[in-house]
Amino acid sequence: MIKKLLQRVFNPGKQKSGKKPKGISQQNAKVIPRSTHGIDRKLLSTAALKTTEGLQKAGFEAYVVGGAVRDLLLKRRPKDFDVATNATPEQVNRVFRRSRIIGRRFRLVHVIFGDETVEVSTFRGSHLADDDNARTAESGRILRDNVFGNQEEDAVRRDFTANALYYDPATEEVLDFHNGVADIKAGVLRMIGDPATRYREDPVRMLRAIRLSAKLGLKLDAATETPIPKMADLLKDVPESRLFDEMLKLFLSGHAMESARELRRHGLHHGLLPLLDVVLEQPMGERFVNLALQNTDDRVLADKPVSPGFLFATLLWHEVLAAWKKYQEEGHRPIPALHMAMTEVSDIQAEKLAIHKRYSTTMREIWGLQPRFEQRAGKRPYALIEHPRFRAAYDFLLLRCESGELPAEIGQWWSDFAHADGEMRAAMLLPDTEPKKRRRRRRSRSSGGPDTGPGQAA
Ligand code: ATP
Ligand code: MG
Questions:
Q1: Could you read off the pLDDT tens digit of each residue along the chain, which spans 458 residues?
Q2: How far is the CA of 146 from the centre of ligand 1 (A)?
Q3: pTM of the predicted model as reported, rounded to 2 decimal places
Q4: 375 near 442, Cβ under 8 Å?
Q5: Which residue's CA lies nearest to atom 17 of ligand 1?
């Protein structure tokens, strides 16, 4: 039994009878059986299983690959599943009715099952091949990566050893070309190949190194870590939208605080990552931003939804506050002044940070609702609580209270009001004439219908 097992580990070419002979591409892989890697097949999503099964039935090779295998080995629940195959995107597309080919820089197929999408990529070959499908910039950065190859080549071009593992749900074996399983067991995140070359090919890998090591609790291997500060400048060449996507992943990883700290420690900020500069260079809003990141981390780790719009609203809030103050000092009334401030900050910052429109809309809604929390008389609180963005705006309010910007009492009042029943709510309302505890005065109540909160004005 043990002998057989060893034979399989060390002679992956000779595999169980009855199985399709595999290509030469696997000769250099360790084949790690279920008993060693311990991955429970039941933890795979149905969609991932259906995808590999579908492809295998059609005569192709198909494996769950990348982050999902790594996460399963670390006993974590993968957030999504990627599949690698020797079928071309067109072939994959033909196997699954509900699928579509996407991407240019890197073509792949989205296979859809209900509300789950599995990303299927064809094994990629060396980007060094000199033709139209693989292009590198003078700096060595890869611009296009569409040369297909075999599985072994596919493994080499992945970033970390821990990310280059292939799991076949049919055999329950893991194919390991770069000692990824051993690295994971030793708690190490190691770049495949020469780290400096790999960072030159794709500088975003530096950010991935920081993010994944923080998120997974893996230590960066010394050779992987050392070149980072020296090569940080290469991030300047990366298109903003890609940097933005990567930073968003980082902030929503559940380890935003630690990642931000580590980015700074590795010299990966200051002009390179506008979004991070916003986080780290806020003497005024530091406490608020730290609370916001901590809050985001807590939510992610508790499996609660987090919204990027909310996060950006927090990151930019102190700029809004400053502009709001400025406009009021220039003689504008509070609500129009707030809207002017919102426009100013979102026009300048959203562009600089490449914040997507759909996020900046949420951001503005959250900001715009803030003054309405100061209105605790009449029917206005009832209207606010029914607002589709109430929840987000209320969470935001709580952060403002927690950071000391507003009295804690306001946040508490809204928590109580939200949980109270009809009679209790009515009893909680402040009399219309009550002098406000807040310094920022609201307008006299002589005008406007009962439901027209100031947040909707202007
Ligand atoms: P996450 O848990 O954040 O999804 P991930 O490792 O799965 O982490 P993805 O962006 O989903 O990250 O990428 C899937 C796989 O593609 C990775 O595991 C890795 O094998 C490969 N990959 C992703 N980005 C790169 C890159 N910049 N360079 C090389 N390989 C990459
Ligand atoms: Mg992934």
A1: 454 444 444 443 333 333 444 444 567 899 999 999 999 999 999 999 999 999 999 999 999 999 999 999 999 989 899 999 999 999 999 999 999 999 887 889 999 999 999 999 999 987 654 455 556 666 667 666 668 889 999 999 999 999 999 999 999 999 999 999 999 999 999 999 999 999 999 999 999 999 999 999 999 999 999 999 999 999 988 888 888 889 899 999 999 989 988 998 998 877 666 777 777 777 667 788 888 889 999 999 998 888 899 998 998 898 899 999 999 999 999 999 999 999 998 888 777 777 888 888 999 999 999 999 999 888 899 999 999 999 999 999 999 999 999 999 999 999 999 999 888 888 888 887 655 555 555 555 444 333 333 333 32
A2: 16
A3: 0.80
A4: yes
A5: 66
Cα angle value 454/457/458 (rounded, 5°): 135
C-alpha separations of 220 from 98, 176, 196, 200 in Å: 39, 19, 14, 18
Ligand 1 proximity of 371 Cβ (cutoff 6 Å): no
The first and second tokens of residue 231, run together, are 């090569």
In short, whether 141's Cβ falls inside 6 Å of ligand 1 is no
Q: Which of 71, 145, 154, 159 is catalytic?
A: 159
Instruction: Report whether 159 contacts 192 (CB < 8 A).
Output: yes
**Annotation marks residue 80 as catalytic:** yes
Distances (CA, A) of 132 to 107, 124, 128, 145, 158: 14, 14, 11, 10, 21
The residue type at 244: F
Pull the structure tokens for residue 251. Answer: 């902030």
Report how far apart, in Å, the C-alpha atoms of 106 and of each of 102, 135, 296 are. 8, 11, 31
Domains annotated for the chain, with CATH where assigned, are 1-186 (3.30.460.10), 187-238 (no CATH), 241-433 (1.10.3090.10)
Cβ of 76 closer than 6 Å to ligand 1, yes or no, is: no
Is the distance from the beta carbon of residue 201 to the nearest atom of ligand 1 less than 6 Å?
no
Ligand 1 atom, smallest distance to 66 CA? 18
